[in-house]
Amino acid sequence: MDKIDRKILSLLQKDATMPVAEIGRKVGLSTTPCWRRIQKMEEDGVIQRRVAVLDPSKVNVGVTVFVSVKTNEHNEAWMRKFSGVIDEFPEVVEFYRMSGDVDYLMRVVVPDIHAYDTFYKRLISKINLTDVSSAFAMGQIKYTTALPLDFAIVVDDDK
């Protein structure tokens, strides 16, 4: 990856629908070399997929709940089972194994508290959990899908 690749990624993170010719123009490349770089980053898994970012309130999932889970089960089989259960819930949009006091953290999106209660009851019916704690987001201060690129390892292309 070089500085041009980083610029391409920055542009794509802002608007994945931007035409390759325009991206090329903004990074100082013609269309074909720019397209080749994008294809290479897709092949290498740097670009995993291109998606549409939706407005949660316009698709009726405007309530965000952060769900902390503790368990007494700390083995590979249980973790795989739990992960499989979570895969069944489209409301879970992020799912992490954590260090510290909480074993797992989920970000869940639902229309309202009643829908969250329904989600919670379905979840606990499918797997045994030691403790589940929910925190409802009162308002979103910052949200982005763009990753910081300042930390990307860049080949010194000035040589």
TrEMBL record:
Keyword Lipoprotein: no
GO BP annotations listed: regulation of DNA-templated transcription; response to amino acid
Domain HTH asnC-type, first and last residues per copy: 1-64
Domain of life from the UniProt record: Bacteria
InterPro entries, per database record: ArsR-like_HTH (IPR011991), AsnC-type_HTH_dom (IPR000485), Dimeric_a/b-barrel (IPR011008), Tscrpt_reg_AsnC-like (IPR019888), Tscrpt_reg_AsnC/Lrp_C (IPR019887), Tscrpt_reg_HTH_AsnC-type_CS (IPR019885), WH-like_DNA-bd_sf (IPR036388), WH_DNA-bd_sf (IPR036390)
Xref: PROSITE patterns: HTH_ASNC_1 (PS00519), HTH_ASNC_2 (PS50956)
The keyword DNA-binding appears for this protein: yes
GO CC terms in record: cytosol
Keyword tags: DNA-binding, Transcription, Transcription regulation
GO molecular function: sequence-specific DNA binding
Name used for this protein in its record: Lrp/AsnC family transcriptional regulator
Organism: Devosia aurantiaca
